[in-house]
């Protein structure tokens, strides 16, 4: 059986933030001692850049090399069929839901809410804001609208799902439109809303029955963090202003469905069920 010899001049590597590609070239050589890579094999420790072990061999192109009886094998490597990768983790994950090796995409921003003034019944010529006061001076009543920024934004968690997508949808759909019942990805309870997901059918490289189907899923979340006097509120908290006699009270409160009197607008769920 003919041996193989790797051609150093055929080696290439191209890596970006979103993935990578590499190439190694071998020729048949009776005296050769190198081993031809197999499909799915990670980047060999013998390669010049063995730290890029997230690359796997996906395709081999066989051509004639010079003489009629010498063949050249061009081996193409690429990162796993995931949206992004972590170059510090060379483990190839084969779980039902593969997300530990993926980067979460986040967008942070804010929602500006203006707390307006109310007429002070004790003096019809004055207006005041019941929530705030001026730091200095003898008359500390605030008589101007006050804008405040409520931190908000969104983030995406990608998954590689090898289960049937109907099974995953059966888990995800009951959670759709609900908020986290406990801390989730560092966010306080009730601040993260699950808004849905996308799923794209994909196949691992291979031929015929060797192809393994999976789903590239992106879980989509929105967060809203309301600073309370103690702790934080979220999607179920709204500005409430009411008057008792001449006293105006203003603050954050939850709104409940009037029919039951106990259920908030955004009901709670364990969002970790999406990742289990």
Name the features.
276 residues; mainly beta; 5-stranded antiparallel beta sheet; 4-stranded antiparallel beta sheet; 18 strands; 46% strand
SSE blueprint and pairings:
Layout (H helix, E strand, L loop, with lengths): L3 E13 L2 E10 L27 E9 L6 E8 L18 E2 L6 E11 L2 E2 L7 E7 L7 E2 L3 E16 L3 H8 L6 E2 L11 E12 L9 E12 L1 E2 L4 E2 L3 E8 L2 E8 L13 E2 L7
Parallel strand pairs: 11-18
Antiparallel strand pairs: 1-2, 2-4, 3-4, 5-10, 6-10, 7-8, 8-9, 10-13, 12-13, 14-15, 16-17
Report Rg. Answer: 30 Å
Main β-sheet: number of strands, strand sense, barrel status? 5 strands, antiparallel
Order of helices and strands: EEEEEEEEEEHEEEEEEEE
- Uncertain runs with pLDDT below 50, 5 residues or more? 81-101, 206-210
CA(first)-CA(last) distance: 48 Å
The total count of helices amounts to 1
Total domains: 2
Calculate the mean pLDDT score and round it.
77
Shape: elongated
Give the assembly state of these chains: single chain
Secondary structure: number of strands = 18
Percent helix, as a range, is under 10%
Query: Helix- and strand-based class?
Result: mainly beta
**What is the beta-strand fraction?**
over 45%
């Amino acid at each position: 059986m003919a041996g193989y010899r790797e051609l150093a001049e055929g080696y290439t590597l191209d890596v970006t933030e979103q993935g990578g590609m590499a190439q190694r070239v071998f020729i048949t050589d009776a005296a050769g001692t190198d081993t031809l890579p197999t499909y799915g094999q990670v980047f060999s420790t013998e390669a010049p850049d063995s730290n890029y072990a997230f690359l796997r061999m996906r395709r081999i192109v066989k051509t004639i090399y010079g003489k009629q009886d010498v063949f050249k094998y061009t081996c193409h490597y690429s990162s796993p069929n995931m949206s992004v990768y972590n170059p510090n983790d060379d483990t190839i994950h084969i779980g039902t839901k593969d997300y530990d090796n993926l980067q979460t995409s986040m967008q942070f921003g804010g929602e500006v809410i203006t707390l307006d003034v109310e007429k002070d019944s004790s003096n019809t010529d004055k207006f005041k804001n019941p929530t705030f006061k001026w730091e200095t001076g003898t008359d500390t009543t605030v008589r101007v609208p006050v804008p405040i920024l409520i931190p908000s934004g969104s983030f995406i968690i990608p998954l590689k799902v090898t289960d049937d997508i109907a099974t995953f949808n059966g888990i995800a759909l009951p959670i759709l439109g609900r908020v986290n019942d406990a801390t989730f990805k560092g966010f306080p309870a009730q601040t993260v809303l699950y808004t849905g997901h996308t799923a794209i059918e994909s196949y691992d490289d291979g031929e015929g029955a060797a192809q393994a189907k999976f789903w590239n899923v992106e879980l989509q979340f929105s967060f809203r963090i309301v600073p309370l006097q103690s702790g934080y509120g979220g999607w179920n908290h709204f500005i409430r202003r009411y008057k008792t006699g001449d006293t105006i009270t203003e603050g954050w409160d939850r709104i409940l469905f009037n029919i039951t009197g106990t259920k908030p607008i955004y009901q709670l769920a364990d969002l970790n069920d999406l990742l289990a």
